[in-house]
Amino acid sequence: MCFQNNNAQASLEYLLTYGWGLVLIATVIGVLVFIASPVDSEATIFSSAPGKIMIKGASFLGDGTTIKLQNIAGGNIKITKIVFPTGYSNCLVNGVNPLDEITVGIPFEILAGGEINITCDEAAQTVDSILIIYKDPAGLEQSVSITPSKPIVEPVPPTVISSCGYVVTESGYYMLESDLQASGTLCINVSGTDNVLIDCQGHRIFDLAKNGVGVYASEPGGSVEQLTVKNCTFDFLTLGIWVKDVVGGTFRNNVATDNLKFGFNFENLSNSLVEGNITTNTGVAGIAIEGNDNLVKNNISCGLGGVGFECSGLNNTGFGNKGPASNPENFCDFTIDSFC
Hints:
It is built from two helices and 34 strands. By secondary structure, it is mainly β. It folds into two domains: 104 residues, Immunoglobulin-like (Sandwich); 181 residues. Strands 11, 14, 17, 18, 21, 24, 27, 30 and 33 form a nine-stranded parallel sheet that branches. It has an eight-stranded parallel sheet with strand order 10-12-15-19-22-25-28-31, with no helix packed on it. A hairpin with a 2-residue loop joins strand 2 and strand 3. The N and C termini lie far apart (72 Å).
């Protein structure tokens, strides 16, 4: 009996001494299981909420994209919106076009443990996230970002825009390497062209006379699909970004200051993401959105002559936004979460 007690004591001492190491190893293995892709994948992808929506696998090939997710939220969830960034085309979620089904009020219900299968005809050329908005088992709205760790397909060498008055007529990746002066022009004009990514890399587009537009996009009689504008600063213009009839756009991490009318003016925008933008000292509205089924997330619109956020349309979702306490928003489906 004494021998058995000695063995038990020795085992307990061993666990107390080395147990933390076993826990650490188990934790590392668990993390790797959450983020690891299967062997046929060309890129690892990450879930921003791996305890709720787990990555099961991914395949990124030249002729298509497949992403397999699993609901481990502890109960049934209802997906209400999915926002795809530039580079994904003809995407289906569990065999259904989300732009046709989810956004007209028919959410996907995913049972506990059920799979979410995303397939696209063409591989993405961006590291931007797919954003999934869903109601958790308690009915609360949640979001998760699905992000590749590297470009699924390496982007072609970018086209450098070196002066204002530039008209984009071909799909592709465009960037700035210096500040540009608008001088009363439409500095960058996306003329009815789909699948365009504009990255200013933190550079400014400005016009001290407040008589120009930073980025303009339109398609008379149609729509511009999959337009991304990011990392731009717009100073002393009439409008920083002015787009019309854009579907599936992404407008992220842009700054607009001291513009005459609007920081960002979106007319007839649909199924798009407006995220992480900042506006100050604009005359009419910091961020104006006319359209349906858009996600407006983590934007700041302060120090204004007009309203912070101005909306018209249906099913526009917003959270994490900050606006002026005196006049934060007009006619928006969402409320402002914090005040300047």
